[in-house]
Design brief:
2 copies of one chain form a homodimer. The first copy, chain A, is of the alpha/beta class and 710 residues long. Chain A folds into 4 domains: 4-300, Succinyl-CoA synthetase domains (Rossmann fold, 3-Layer(aba) Sandwich); 308-465, Succinyl-CoA synthetase domains (Rossmann fold); 515-592, 2-Layer Sandwich (Dna Ligase, domain 1); 597-709, ATP-grasp fold, B domain (D-amino Acid Aminotransferase, Chain A, domain 1, 2-Layer Sandwich). The radius of gyration of chain A is 33 Å and the shape is flat. Chain A has 24 helices and 30 strands. At the A-B interface, helix 2, helix 5, helix 8 and helix 11 of A face helix 2, helix 5, helix 8 and helix 11 of B.
Chain lengths: 710, 710
């Protein structure tokens, strides 16, 4: 039997490319959603048949209406539900009976209002499952497909956007209208535009996979208000990015806790910690944006222009200051100012006035007309040292603004190198900007945004070059052993596992716990100590002795067999002196490690992303500097290495002040294993290894203390 | 005699409010600066007389022209020079003879081109001084004063901006045209608009003081490409802000080193380190912006609306997502979501639909028309718990966009509470945005920018509340003693001062150096040790003994008189054994301090800001975490305290992990004294106290090692 995800992939096609649509629950009241939907579909010149379904009307907007969806004589590819939520299940049932597989539920009044809404949402989901139907929504703005083949505006948005190559997926419906309006003014086109609302059935994950295979989509934009299935989202995103090479730009609301509360009050779900979101998105290769403007700035960079071959860029400007701002932002983003070839330098020197700056960034000076821009543009594009060009213009009284825009379009069209522009200002430059936008040259109000967007394209290209990191299988872990310890604790109703039990679990996953053994006599003590390797610590094992150190029940720093035997006897004597009736389980002989760099390794379960691993430097570094980093489990070795290098104090691990570097390999291995452990056991709510002592290179690292909450 | 600054303040008035202007060096070639300037002044309907001066023409743009400025029969208040730089000095000389005191030099070809240009700039400056003239420029776009009294567009910018209350000062001319165009489309008005170019005579400092006293200016904007007289700028800025309560928003190019190089190649001056810029601007109370958009976002917030009484704000939106984004940004900026009064809650509950969110942020839901906005706006403004209101709108098909804009204007007009708006989108919302802008309601494309701008206004209000911090006089420092040490080193041609000399200088400024004295016999050793207080260190003083410790020339941890005597004799014996001919200056008895938190205290001379003080935690914290902070000297106690609290690891000083807090008072005093020292002696190029050992509260701090470069 097909999974729901497979069913969705089959049914989504008819959501975007239906030949016939039933709008179920429509009416004649203009300015309401039920009417506007019909009207919008017709106005957009939908390439197919529309069947309004309205219990009380004979026709809607000039089109014959039917009482029930089952009354429609033809086949129907897509149903759009605009009935009140209280009767949606009846309409959906009829859609099922009619054999309709693809549905958009626009209606609100479901999970987002709580109570009865939650029940209603469950009910329509069950109906969809029964009939192998798939629906988008409920509580959404609808779906738009500007593809000239279909021209579908199945939404209550005012505008049908231009056709283009940006796929937009949004959890918020209201935001969509702002996005459409913003995009319209900038000639930004879309391949698909979806408001997925409560995503009760088809989720953003299904839609991502659909856009992966959609040949009209080059860039995917995702607006989220909460992440429900974080792990699933990350997996899908990484697959889509890797398999299609399409970037996913993501905007997620809810950065502060008050913000999260506001999100919760309106989506009916709690937002996860934002740091973990950041980490997870980055792991999956998604590009997180801070706001809509940044998202579209980057989207058009990906959608309109080729990828630069290298990071060497040229800047051409008629104003020094903005050239500086652009240079700053470019370099921060990993780009480089190209060193011009001799030929370029010669041409610029010959053709530009003496006061011009012929070095990169090229300043053609405030009074430049189109001819100077042409010289600089032609030289830069021709130069093999230059792989992208950024053009800046400020409108002086003699500046030939739209001529220059045309030059940018003309010169760049002969080369497969990306070109970006920032014509600063607004009214005066508007005509020039329009020329740029119609020629699909990404344009930016701020030159810094231009540089940052180009940098993002370059960074993404570099990201795709790196091979996907595999999470190792770790066939040597003993999952059952760990399971046994956990289930015993659960059976006893305990949610805190003391060190000894935590150590057993860590040991089962081959984390570097200290070697130890229980000796029952002085010979065993010496023998085990030798096996473990000196120095060792010996400690009484007895539930009847509480303050073991105070009564001499612990001996540190035992260096040889004789000392081991002496320690055994001394401990036994002291314990017996102290409490002759103490029940003694033996004496624990443990490897002694006191030195090493203290680090902290932790894990917890996040409501959205499940198992999450934390790493940081220990002691004061975590307490005062909060110098820690997170990643979503499970992790590859590369992920672990990234954690080590991305804390601020990473130099301390890699060797600083003449100190030898620490055992990075061992530490990476421990992080990978820990990530597998929390991924295997979602019942581990919190786990702390604090400190872990990291020795010099080749000498390992050791769990010095650990605790687990379940 | 009046200072140049006093002369400037007198002459600036005629630059902005002339009744007659001579444009010197103009011609008839349209589209060139010399002609455009005349044309722009006439087109802007200048309220006064224009006298073109052109050696070869009888008239310019229909106005009678004169061969020389001295030929003009009337008095001339302002001369604008547009001659080539090679003859500007001749024209300026004639202006002097004519008795013109106020001049704008538009012409380029001065310091910015180097070589002969530098000489030309010096020459015109000398002429200005000779005649008590003042000029703006050279190499600038000119000056604009939209005040209806004068309507002066003495620039080659295309546009005369609207009249308003923003004073704009720019080092870049080209950027000005972009700014004017940007502002025009948003109905942003200016009180004064100045491109000051090379600022050879009148500087941004003079202009800041002018704007301080200009009753038409409410907000000051400053765009800088390099800071030449940083100290002067900071002093002026702080005075202007404190005395007038007007905020100064500053945008400075050159964040990265490559950026700084680009700036240098085109302004003929090196940009100072950006971190120091940041610190200095903040000390002076200036608000640094990252880009032009942010600058104007904040400028209109200050210019158009009253200051909020408190940080409690209300958000009204028809879309949940943007409400969350706004909340996030508001809280990050120190604002709070107001808790509504019972009355407000009652009204909202009664009048808004059930699906609406009646808590702050209020969500009137996507299908809201103007009536719901009216209800929410009225309730929020009326609520005493609310001191500012942010309105968000996304354009759904039923949204009454410009009606809602009118409601915002109408309701807010009855209250003295600031209101801000973000109508998201572009074309659809344009009419509504226009209504807002004409009503001087600050409007933002992004709701986050709206919240951040409001937060900035609130933060500035809080800043003004705090009293200006006084730099203490420190009458107990012995400047002469320090001077003596420095001049001796200079005399000997040394630029490195060893510890002993550095300590003498620090001691003169009462920095807490370790107590020490030179003993010549065992009695003195014991006596001095007692005076200093045990434990002490004793060390041989002899240039003939290099490795003092190796031969037993140093004894640590001396606890009493007997040990002091013994140590004296033992050291003497060992040194003599080692080298019987060694010349011995005595034995240094020094206070012994080994414990304490290590901090680093440094100072250097910055090319723009002169004396700069650095503070940070020592050892690994400075080496790996770069946990240091800078301020421009001299410092108040508050400044010093701020340095302590703004490093990331400040908790370590204030007590962490059960440790007692350190002696903050002593450390603050040391920082203040160090700042005075580098302020008094610009010849101290670098000074490092590393480490300084900070004891527990009340127990002081000590200079453990110090070095000075001159």
């Amino acid at each position: 039997m097909a999974t729901r995800a497979e069913v969705h992939q089959k049914n989504i096609q008819n959501i975007f490319y239906p030949e016939s649509i039933a709008i179920v629950g429509t009416n004649k009241v203009k300015g309401t959603v039920p009417f506007d939907i019909v009207n919008n579909i017709l106005k957009a010149e939908f390439n197919g048949v529309v069947f309004p379904v309205s219990p009380g009307e004979r026709y809607i907007a000039g089109v014959k209406a039917y009482k029930y969806v089952t009354d429609i004589p033809d086949e129907v590819d897509l149903a759009i539900l605009v009935f009140p939520s209280s009767v949606c299940h009846l309409a959906l049932e009829q859609c099922g009976q009619k054999g309709i597989k693809s549905v958009i539920v626009i209606s609100a009044g479901f999970k987002e209002v709580g109570g009865v809404g939650v029940e209603r949402e469950k009910r329509i989901k069950q109906i969809a499952e029964k009939y192998d139907m798939s629906f988008i929504g409920p509580n959404c703005l609808g779906v738009i497909n500007p593809d000239p083949k279909v021209r579908l505006n199945a939404s209550f948005a005012r505008r049908m956007p231009e056709d283009g190559s940006i796929g937009f997926l949004s959890q918020s419906g209201a935001l969509c209208t702002a996005v459409l309006d913003y995009a319209y003014s900038r000639h930004i086109g879309f391949s698909k535009f979806v408001s997925f609302g409560n995503k009760a059935d088809i989720s953003e994950i299904d839609l991502l996979y659909y856009l992966r295979d959609d040949p009209r989509t080059k860039v995917i934009l995702l607006y989220l208000e909460e992440v429900s299935d974080g792990k699933g989202l990350l997996e899908a995103a990484e697959n889509v990015i890797r398999e299609s090479g399409k970037p996913i730009l993501v905007l997620k609301a809810g950065r502060t806790s008050k913000g999260a509360a506001a999100a919760a009050s309106h989506t009916g779900s709690l937002a996860g910690s934002d740091e973990i979101c950041d980490a997870g998105f980055e792991q999956a290769g998604m590009i997180r944006c801070d706001n809509l403007e940044e998202m579209f700035n980057k989207a058009i960079a990906f959608a309109y222009q080729p990828v630069p071959k290298s990071n060497r860029m040229a800047i051409i400007t008629n104003a020094g200051g903005p050239g500086v701002l652009t240079t700053d932002a470019a370099i921060e983003g990993g780009l480089e100012l190209a060193d011009f070839s001799e030929e370029t330098t010669k041409v610029l020197k010959k053709s530009l006035p003496k006061t011009a700056n012929i070095k990169n960034p090229v300043d053609v000076i405030g009074d430049a007309r189109a001819d100077r821009y042409n010289v600089a543009l032609s030289a830069a594009f021709k130069d093999d040292n230059v792989d992208s060009v950024c053009v800046i213009l400020t409108p002086q009284s003699m500046t030939e603004i739209d001529l220059i825009a045309r030059e940018v379009a003309k010169v760049s069209s002969h080369y497969d190198k990306p070109v970006f522009a920032s014509f600063m200002g607004e009214a005066d430059v508007a005509e020039g900007v329009d020329v740029l936008q119609r020629n699909r040259i990404p344009h930016y109000l701020l030159p810094e945004s231009m540089a940052r967007s180009l940098a993002t394209v370059y960074q993404f290209k570099e990201y795709l070059k790196k091979k996907k990191k595999e999470v190792p299988a770790l066939s040597d872990v003993d999952k059952e052993a760990a399971e046994k310890v956990l289930s015993e604790a659960k059976k006893e109703g305990r949610n805190y596992l003391p060190e000894a039990e935590a150590v057993k679990i860590l040991q089962a996953y081959k984390l570097p716990v200290l070697k130890s053994k229980v000796a029952k006599n002085e010979e065993e003590a010496a023998q085990y100590a030798q096996e473990i390797g000196y120095p060792v610590v010996m400690k009484i094992m007895s539930d009847d002795v509480v303050h073991k150190s105070d009564i001499g029940g612990v001996v540190l720093n035992i260096e040889n067999d004789q000392e081991a035997k002496d320690a055994y006897n001394s401990i036994m004597k002291k314990v017996k002196d102290h409490n002759p009736d103490a029940k003694i389980d033996g004496i624990l002989v443990t490897q002694m490690v006191t030195s090493g760099e203290e680090v902290i390794l932790g894990a917890k379960q996040d409501p959205s992303f499940k198992g999450v691993v934390m790493f940081g430097l220990g002691g004061i570094f975590v307490e005062v500097f909060k110098d820690v980093t997170f990643k979503v489990a499970p992790l590859s070795e590369d992920d672990a290495e990234k954690m080590l290098s991305e804390i601020r104090g990473s130099q301390i691990l890699y060797g600083v002040r003449g100190q030898a570097p620490r055992d990075i390999a061992a530490l990476k291995d421990a992080i990978v294993r820990l990530s597998k452990l929390v991924d295997d056991f979602p019942e581990i709510k919190e786990l702390d290894i604090n400190p872990m002592l990291v020795q010099e290179e080749g000498k390992g690292c050791y769990v010095a203390d650990a605790r687990i909450l379940i």
